């Protein structure tokens, strides 16, 4: 059986934390460049150009794109034929986060309890770790730092099946509408439909990892993605909420089978600094 | 074209700024976000002195990244302002003239902006690397234990911002949106 020392995981997580925060993914950059051409509002265009300029400065100076370097969301896909040695898997990931946020001069944005003292943990741990067991003998790690501004504008609702596609559309559009300028548009809208309350939130988050411009393989779902994108961009919120045509760069929907009685919908909003980076060990 | 303005702000300056105007801010500004505002409110409640003179000043809602060696400050873009809405009116009553952040404000804040002849600016959210380049000096002046949420005194040169809410009660978020809504 293939073995992997958890020290390798720590080192990888450290690097991914730093690189994901310094370098905007190429697909997001391309989507922003396309948005400049489509944006009708002069101030909207200038804002998009500022965002692109910022990404260049961050890459050149090797500093974070955004000061909100997020809670560290980690997706780990662990091959069932891989044996981890040398220590605890979750502690290895958290140690990588600790080192990455220290050595990369990233902001520590985690507080130790959510509503009492709210003391900063000082090292950005604990990471939010989602692990799945997959075939094979490899370990895939995706690091997706998630800022608070856009996360705060996210929402979940348990719709009834009779509310149908119209109910889904209304909820998604209302959520983006209400968020307005707060989540740093242009945003990427991750939508989860189906499952249980926690599953729908999880698939909405996973939807944010998709390459911008790619659609759900199900053509009906892809059609809904296009319709939602158009209607969201008709809201007029525009880049940073200053008014304009480009409020969202993409709407990504993931679905899951649901209970006879339920149609849960989660909307996870991602700011334009849509950061994620992966490695396979 | 951006207008160059200097801090501290006076009524003469704020009354001539209008929603949608682009500005380049020069001078001293102070940082403050959730935890620092909570502490300022506690000081006021106890009747104690604030750690800096508010008159004419500008507060920038930001929690910067740590500075890399050789840099003044780390990335430093605006945070969402609405979380400071409960604290902002009393600070404006006491002389605060400007706020820099992102996102819409409550009716209470907008009313207070009009009443006290203040101004609310937005900087581009998520452009922290670019905005940090306009920050030339940074020093913690209060609540160092809060880390990124401490109050920093910043010296800025041509810090780019846009007027969202002006002394006439106009709001760029509403104006901009109505123009492009379909």
> Could you state the CATH homologous superfamily of chain B?
Fe-S hydro-lyase, tartrate dehydratase beta-type, catalytic domain
Query: What is the C-alpha radius of gyration of chain A, as a whole number of Å?
Result: 19 Å
Percentage of residues assigned to helices of chain A: 25-40%
Sketch the topology of chain A as an H/E string, one letter per element. Answer: EHHHEEHEEHEHEHHEEE
CATH level 1 class label of chain B: Alpha Beta
Strand tally of chain B, please?
Answer: 7
Please give the order of strands in the largest beta sheet of chain B. 2-3-4-5-7
Name the average pLDDT of chain A: 97
How do the helices and strands follow one another from N- to C-terminus of chain B?
A: EHEHEHEHEHEEH
For the record, the CATH architecture of chain B stands as Alpha-Beta Barrel
Count of individual helical segments of chain B: 6
What's the shape of chain A? globular
Number of DSSP helices of chain A?
Answer: 8
Report strand % of chain B.
25-35%
Distance between the termini of chain B: 28 Å
Helical amount among residues of chain B, as a percent range? Answer: 10-25%
């Amino acid at each position: 059986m293939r073995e992997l020392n958890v020290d390798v995981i720590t080192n990888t997580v450290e690097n991914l934390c730093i690189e994901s925060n310094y370098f905007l993914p190429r697909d997001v950059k391309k989507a922003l460049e396309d948005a400049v051409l489509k944006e009708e509002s002069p101030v909207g265009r200038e804002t998009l150009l500022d965002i692109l300029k910022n990404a260049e400065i961050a890459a050149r100076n090797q500093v974070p794109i955004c000061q909100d370097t997020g809670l560290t969301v980690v997706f780990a896909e662990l091959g069932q034929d891989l044996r981890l040695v040398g220590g605890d898997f979750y502690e290895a990931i958290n140690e990588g986060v600790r080192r990455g946020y220290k050595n990369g001069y990233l902001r520590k944005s985690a507080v130790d309890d959510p509503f009492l003292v709210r003391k900063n943990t000082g090292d950005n741990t604990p990471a939010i770790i989602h692990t799945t067991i997959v075939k094979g003998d490899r370990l895939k790690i995706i690091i997706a730092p998630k800022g608070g501004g856009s996360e705060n504008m996210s929402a979940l609702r348990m719709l009834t099946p009779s509310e149908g596609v119209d109910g889904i559309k209304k909820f998604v559009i209302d959520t983006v509408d209400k968020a307005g300028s707060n989540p740093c548009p242009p945003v990427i809208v991750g939508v989860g439909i189906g499952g249980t309350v926690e599953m729908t939130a999880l698939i909405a988050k996973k939807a944010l990892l998709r390459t911008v411009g790619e659609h759900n393989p199900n053509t009906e779902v892809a059609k809904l993605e296009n319709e939602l994108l158009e209607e969201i961009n008709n809201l007029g919120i525009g880049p940073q909420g200053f008014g304009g045509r480009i409020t969202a760069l993409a709407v990504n929907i993931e679905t899951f089978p649901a209970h006879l009685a339920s149609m849960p919908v989660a909307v996870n909003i991602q700011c334009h600094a849509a950061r994620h980076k992966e490695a396979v060990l | 074209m951006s207008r160059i303005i200097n801090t501290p702000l006076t009524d003469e300056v704020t009354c001539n700024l209008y929603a949608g105007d682009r500005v380049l801010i020069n001078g001293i500004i102070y940082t403050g976000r959730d935890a620092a505002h909570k502490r300022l409110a506690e000081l006021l409640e106890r009747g104690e002195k604030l750690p800096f003179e508010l008159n004419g000043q500008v507060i920038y809602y930001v929690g910067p990244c740590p500075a890399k060696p050789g840099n003044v400050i780390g990335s430093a873009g605006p945070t969402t302002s609405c979380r400071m809405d409960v604290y902002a009116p009393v600070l404006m009553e006491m002389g605060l003239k400007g706020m820099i952040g992102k996102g819409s404000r409550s009716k209470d804040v907008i009313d207070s902006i009009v009443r006290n002849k203040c101004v609310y600016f937005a900087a581009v959210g998520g452009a922290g690397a670019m905005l940090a380049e306009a920050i030339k000096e940074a020093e913690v002046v209060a609540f160092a234990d809060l880390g990124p949420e401490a109050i920093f005194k910043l010296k800025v040169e041509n810090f780019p911002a846009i007027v969202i809410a002006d002394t006439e009660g106009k709001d760029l978020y509403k104006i901009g949106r109505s123009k492009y809504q379909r």
